[in-house]
UniProtKB/TrEMBL annotation:
Signal peptide: 1-15
Record keywords, A-Z: Signal
Source organism of this protein record: Athelia psychrophila
Entry keyword annotation includes Cell division: no
Family: Belongs to the AIM6 family.
Listed GO MF terms: phosphoric diester hydrolase activity
InterPro entries: HAT_RTT109-like, PLC-like_Pdiesterase_TIM-brl
Protein name (Swiss-Prot/TrEMBL): Altered inheritance of mitochondria protein 6
Coiled-coil portions: none
Positions of transmembrane segments: none
Amino acid sequence: MCWIIAPALFLSCFAVFWHAPAQDRSSANDLLFFLSSPDSPLKGYPVPLTAGVIPKRFHSHNDYAQNVPLYKALSYGASSVEADIYLVDDELLVGHTPFDLSKERTLAALYLDPLMSLIQTANEKATTGTRRGIFELAPAITLNLLIDIKTDGPSTFDKLYAALEPLRSAGYLSTYDPHTSSIKQSIITVIGTGDTPLSSVQALGSNKRRPRDIFLDAPLAKLPGDTAKVYNHTNSPLASIDFGSGVGLWWALPPVGKARIRMLVEAAHARGVQTRFWNTPIAPIWLRNYVWQMLLDEGVDWLNVDDLPAAKDF
Ligand SMILES: *[C@@H]1O[C@H](CO)[C@@H](O)[C@H](O)[C@H]1NC(C)=O
């Protein structure tokens, strides 16, 4: 494939092409966790699922479509996962399209309850005042839980806010602190994407009983022109853009592609917001890796990933 590309690209492309491809193998942690009985000594360690796993800044895109949602991503070190939600008959159901939904696959069953139990297990034997997060090796790191709202924004948002109550009252959610004008990180940071309304996020936090603990994945394309700073660190820890519209085929002309990426990243970082490009190429592998490297080189904070083993080893 490489030789059909512009000569300027040839060298870097060559290097990426020969980078050994990551093998698609199952994570040992994953298997141990699932195969052992509840009272097995394998589960005696506080965070058995993530024991020895180094968390990295990559996002498990459409995570619910993995063969084992959430757990698999965590066992590979993904410190961000995504669930698409639909409000149907007063329940939040998880799936990509309305045809993928079922009564059993609720947001609580797939994500909120397992997270609660992971955190509780990790902390039940804690002897000191320090609290453990999701990752055994990095107890202070926050897990981004991206919730892609697929049905009516305001009503789905309100239902999501209610569904988060157990995690909220346990103190496990990152929360905006109006006094310091910053987000106080906790074990999980909930970030609404898709049709999440900025107004719903912004309405939270004005009184203590409704703290702001759902944030926004801001439209990165709008940040360079957003002189009023409508999107900022108080409401949007993250901003995202479709790779096609942010960079497109300019990846093949690195000085231009990189400048486009850098311009967006600088606009976000200037207001304390992290960045993610979604819809990056997934094949061929050399192109996927080439684009990942280009994004990281220009300061992009999160890789958007479907192939978890490859991202773990990247
Ligand atoms: C952040 O955005 C909100 C809503 O758009 C705005 O009210 C607030 O003043 C902004 N804060 C900063 C520090 O820019």
